[in-house]
């Protein structure tokens, strides 16, 4: 592909990304993979270059752009190498017209930028949300030890006891240690959220919103494969990914429970009042994960945020019913909005005098309300809110 053809391909892909953001369609990564599956003539360098252009353009635009061309024109205002590639060549984009409007720059749609500022995410903290995430690994204690594990590259040692950091794009999935389950890909913040659960061998622990089990596997390692560890979720497809991952990781203790939406407590009735710990890694807006999914900021609206908060309240109430007297609950969202963090745990505690907040003992993060917040700007992790509450004995 010529450089101009790469720009045109990126514009077409941006059109698809924008349409999907408006309609709740597939994420950008999937759209890019599908696009190239149908265009086998594109080599690996073309794919990398187009992908890079798409993501740079997404990051450059704040509000949802009118179309892919407007998004690329925005990037062209920031990168002098781009305007000459709008050259009208057979596979390239038409020249940029005089007065042609570029999409608006910015952090996010205005309402969302305001909501973040209201949650003390502005300036450098806000800009860091759109940086590039490194690649973090968690060494799986069930199979290896960080101090002695021999990897093709050394990696930087992280504050989480099993964490290692590598440059973005490191092909760890080709490493023997990865294939054999000695390491898992897991953001440092996510590893710290699991540590906040304080899961110990022999306990009964429920990962209420387990998804594909990223955090469940970390809990199994902390529990040394001993005790009861339940991974539940309402999404069959996500939960079904856990089985093979658990097998690879040697985490034989996990029991998966598919929940009926609206009847979650019934699905877990045998654990009512029994669990030592329940992790609520709740569905949320994902404002803390924009480094990986920058187009996620175009998928949100205020109504969606209100719905997330209501689901989080519901899940917290369900979790509370599972915890034994003296047990604990850990509430986690990958959001930096107080509406999905400090305000949720405050509402939970205000209605339950028999529960009290406990500050998670973590090496990173800053206090936010009754919990703790990790941010890309301060902690170089994905953004997380993490709160821990204990039930009276
Ligand atoms: C943030 S994701 C969890 C990610 C997962 N814990 C991990 O570490 O990979 C939130 C999950 O909550 C699940 N979920 C949504 N509504 C739920 C409900 N009512 N009960 C249980 N899980 C629910 C979603 O299907 C999704 O997998």
From TrEMBL:
Gene Ontology molecular function terms on file: methyltransferase activity
Active site: 334
PROSITE patterns tied to this protein: SAM_MT_RSMB_NOP
Domain SAM-dependent MTase RsmB/NOP-type: 102-392
Keyword S-adenosyl-L-methionine among record annotations: yes
Binding locations of S-adenosyl-L-methionine: 233, 260, 281
Keyword flag Transferase: yes
Superkingdom of this protein's organism: Bacteria
InterPro entries: MeTrfase_RsmB-F_NOP2_cat, MeTrfase_RsmB-F_NOP2_dom, RCMT, SAM-dependent_MTases_sf
Gene Ontology process terms (BP): methylation
Keyword terms, alphabetized: Methyltransferase, RNA-binding, S-adenosyl-L-methionine, Transferase
Family of the protein in this entry: Belongs to the class I-like SAM-binding methyltransferase superfamily. RsmB/NOP family.
Name recorded for this polypeptide: RsmB/NOP family class I SAM-dependent RNA methyltransferase
Species this protein is from: Pelagerythrobacter marinus
